[in-house]
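Technical appendix A lists one of the benchmark inputs used to test multi-chain prediction within the project. The record comprises two sequence entries:
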Amino acid sequence: MEESILGTQTEESKPPITSVGVIGWVKSNLFNGLFNSILTIVILYLLWKMIPPLFQWAFIDSVWYTNGKACRGIDGACWSIIPTNLRFIIFGFFPYELQWRPFAAMIILFGLLFYSRDRKHWTKYLGYGWIAGLFAMGLLMKGGLFGLSPVETTQWGGLPLTLLLSVFGLTAAYPLGIVLALGRQSKMRGLKLLCILYIELIRGVPLISLLFMSSFIFPLFLPEGVIIPSIIRAQVAIILFTAAYIAEVVRGGLQGMSRGQYEAAESIGLNYYLTMRLVILPQALKIVIPPTVSILISAFKDTSLVMIIALFDLLKTTQTVLSNPEWMGFSREAYIFIAILYFAGCFSMSNYSRKLEKELSTEN
Amino acid sequence: MDNTLLGKVPFWLDPKKRAVIFQIGVFCMVGLLAYYLVSNTLVNLERQSIATGFGFIHKESSFEIGESLISYSAASSYGRALVAGALNTLKVSFIGIVITLILGAIVGVARLSSNWLVSKLAAIYIEVMQDIPVLLQLFFWYAIFYETLPSPQQALSPMNGLFMCNRGMAFAVPEAHPAHKYMVLAFFVGCVVVYIIHRWAKKRQDKTGQVFPVFTVSIGVIIGLPLLTWLTFGAPMKMDVPKLTGFNFTGGLTLSPEFFALLLGLVLYTAAFVAEVVRAGIQAVSKGQREAAMAIGLKPHHVLNLVILPQALRVIIPPLTSQMLNLTKNSSLAVAIGFPDFVSVANTTINQTGQSIEGVALIMAVYLIFSLSTSAFMNWYNKRVAIVER
C-alpha cells in the first residue's frame, strides 16, 4: 500500500516538461528574464540578417578555380586567387624547383611540434631531436652542404620565413631572457641595474623601432665590408625584443619561488649556479609555461611586422600577389585566407597552453 | 669562522669581492662592445659623409602630411612634421584607448553573461581577434575601405548627414558657433562641481550616515550645465553637412580611411585582450563577496559599486595598463597603411635626410616617454585603489 503511494508520488513529481530537455535549456540559457529575452531576440535577428548574405558571398556565388578575369563580373567571393597563387604565397621567391626543401623543413618542424605535444616525451633526447631538427631545417633552407645547391637568404619568403623567424627567435630569446631575469633578480646592484635598463627600454618601445634599427642602423655598426643579410638582422631584432618579454615572464616564476627553496639549496651546499640549475629554474620555468606559450603566440604574430622592412613573409607575399593587376581588388579573400592560417597556428598553441595549464594545476 | 675573522679568506672566495669583480667584468664587456659599435659607426658615417646631429630638424621638410592637428605644409620644418606625427599618434591612441575600454568592458561582461548566445559570441570574438596579427587586421579594414566602398560620387549614405566612400567617412557636425566654447567651459565647470559634491557627500555620509544621490546629481550637472549654456545662446541647431564638391566632400568632419582603418583595427584587436582582463578580474572576486553583500541588503547597484568593482579593479588595472601601452605601441603600425603617425613621419624623415640614428633614437625616445608617463599615471591610480593593509 505504502509502496504504491510512493510510486504514484514519484511519478507525479516529475519536473515539468518546460524545465528539462531542449525547452528547459532554451528557457534557462536564452530566455531567463526580460532583458535576456530581448537580447536573444535582437541577436538572433542580427545573425539572421548577416549570416545568409555572408554564406551566399563565400560559398554560393563564389568561384574557386578560375583566372582573375572570370572573377570580375561575379557577386561572390573570388577564392581562385588562392589556389592559383598558393605556391607563391607559401614559398615566396624560393627557386621553384627547389621548393620541396622549405616544404620538407616545415614538415620536420610540424613533426617535432606534434611529437612534443605529449609531456611524456619531454626528455633529454627530445632536446637533442630539436637541435638536430633546427639544424636540418636551416640546412634545407640554406643549402650548400651534402650536394644541396645554396639558396640566398634574400630568396627566402612566405610561410617558411614566418615560421623560421618565430621558431629561431624564440629558441634564441629563451636562454637570453632567463639570463636577463636572473640578472634582474640578482643581488649585484650594477648588474641588476643593467638588466632593468635593458628590459624596460625594450618593453617601452614598439617592435617596429627595433626593426628600423636593424635595417637602418645595424649596417653602420659593422666594420667596412662586413655585410649581414637583412633576414638575420631582423631575426636579431626579434630575438632582442622577445628576450625582454620572456625575462619578465621568467621573473614572475622566480618571484613565485618560496625562500625555503633557496635556503634548502644553500643548506646542502649548492653554489649559485647549481642552485639555479637544479632547484630554482626547473620549478620556476614549469610555473611559467602557460605565459611563455602566450609569448610564443605573440612572437608568431609579430613576425608579420618584418614586411614593413621589406622582407617577404607570408603577409608580404600575399600583398605581392594582390599588386598583380590580374588579382587586384581581391584583398578580402586573400587576407581571409592568411588570417585563417595565422588563426590555426595561434589557436592550436593557445588551446595547447590551456590544456597544459590544466595538467600542471592538477599535479600540484 | 676564525679564518674570516682573521681575514685569511682569499679574495676569490669572498662573495662580496667576487661580485664586484664579476660586475666590473660585465661592465667592461658591455663597454667594449659599445666602444666597438660606436667606433665602427663613426668610421662608417665619415666614409659615407653623413653629418650627425639634430640640425636637420630646422630644415624644410618638403613632404606633405595627409592629416594634421596643427597647421602644416610642405614648407614647414622637419621638427614641425615630427610634432604633427606625434600628435597624430596621441590622437589615435587616446581615442582608441577610450573606445577600447568601453568595448572591452562590454565584451568582457558579455563573456560572463548567463545568456548562452551572448556568452558564446563574446568567446568567439575574443578568440578570433586575439589570434590574428593586428597588422593583418589593419590591412583587412583598409582594403575593405578602399575596395568595397564606392567613390565619393556614389557615396553610401546610411543615415542623413553621414557619407561613406573610399575617401573616408564624412559626417555632419554642428556649425561653428560661439556657444560651443562656453559649452566646453560649462562641461569643465560641471566636472569641478561634481568633484566638490562628491567630497561633500562622502564627508556628510561619514558624519551622519545619510546617503546623497551622487551619481544622479553628477550626471545631471555634467549634462545639464552645457545644455543650459546651449539654451541661453538660443539653441543653435544649424548643422554643417558635408557636400560633394568636385571629387571629394567638403564641410562636416571627414575621417580618412587610413585613420579609420587604424582605429578600427587597433580597437577591435585590443578590446579582445581587454575583455579577457575584465573577465578575469570579475571572476577573481569570490562568489561569497556578492552573496555577503546581498545578504546585508545592499541594492544591486551598490553590490556592484561598493563590493565587486573595487575588488575587481585591483586585479584588472595592472594588466589593463599593459594593454593600453600595447595599443599605443601598436599604433606605430600606421606606417604600413600610410597614416601619418610619428613612426611614419620619422621613417619619411630618415629616408629623405639619411639621419637614421637620430630618427630611430627619436622614435624610441617618444615611445619611451608615452610608455613611462602612462605607466606612472596607472601606478599612481593603482596605488589609490590598492588594498590598504592594516
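Chain A has two domains: 16-60, 89-94+151-363. Chain A touches chain B through 54 residues (CB under 8 Å). Comparable benchmark entries are summarised in Table A2.
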